[in-house]
Amino acid sequence: MTVVEPFGLSVQDRDLTRDVQAGLEAVEAALGEAVKSDVPFITVTASHLLEAGGKRFRPLLLLLAAQFGDPGAPGVVPAAVVVELTHLATLYHDDVMDEAPVRRGAPSANSRWDNSVAILTGDFLFSRASQVLADLGPEAVRMQAEAFERLVTGQILETRGPGPEMDPLLHYLDVLEGKTGSLIAVACRIGALMAGAEPWLVDTLGEFGERIGIAFQLADDVLDIASDGHESGKTPGTDLREGVPTLPTLLLQQMPADPADPDDTRLRELLEQDLSDDEAHAEALRLLRRHPALERARRETLRHAEEARALLASLPDCAAKAALEGLCDAVAIRTM
Question: Which of 142, 152, 188, 211 is most buried, judged by most C-beta within 10 A?
Answer without folding.
Answer: 188
